[in-house]
């Protein structure tokens, strides 16, 4: 689902009592946690690979905070799908590669943990798609969608959840969602770890959002810059020296 101003979403290592407390407090969807423009952690206080330190300005989101936020998104998803569609309705997750892979993996794991703790998470299935709209640090506006061998006609009648790493201008989702809706799913919603506060935004708001971040170029936690930094656990801000060092023709397909 998409709209012009909005709402969005976390939960996993929660027992049933705490889960029920979250349910009673929450409303449909959930707003992102806003990261202040000035938020900055020194790289020296965290485990960051030495070979990346000269490429980074500072750390924005520690890994532990990311995981806790995703756990809450999982709680919100369970609540919404059970209330709106009933406990037997299957949720089909579509992971947007490559950047969305880690978020998708941790979110699906959080949903499975809820089930193990007696909470009614929806049955899950999943597929992968690839969407390209980035070259280097800038969106190209040219959206390419690859279904990676799946027949999108099989999406008919399903509840789809797109799992994305970051929403930048929103152009890609504004193209991708109508394309998927043409195959007749029951619903299409979007979960993204990050949404960027940028003047270039086209007004797209995801249904479940982990963090609203400043208009800075971020890497780590599977977000890349020209295929580098995906293996870093935390989310960090690129330094100008790092951008220049790793600049290549073509490149970054993961910030949408």
Automatic annotation (TrEMBL):
It is found in: Cytoplasm. Pathway: Purine metabolism; IMP biosynthesis via salvage pathway; IMP from hypoxanthine: step 1/1. InterPro entries: HGPRT (IPR050408), Hxn_phspho_trans (IPR005904), PRTase-like (IPR029057), PRTase_dom (IPR000836). Its EC number is 2.4.2.8. Keywords: Cytoplasm, Glycosyltransferase, Magnesium, Metal-binding, Nucleotide-binding, Purine salvage, Transferase. Residues 69-225 form the Phosphoribosyltransferase domain. It catalyses: IMP + diphosphate = hypoxanthine + 5-phospho-alpha-D-ribose 1-diphosphate. Belongs to the purine/pyrimidine phosphoribosyltransferase family. This is Hypoxanthine phosphoribosyltransferase. It comes from Prymnesium parvum.
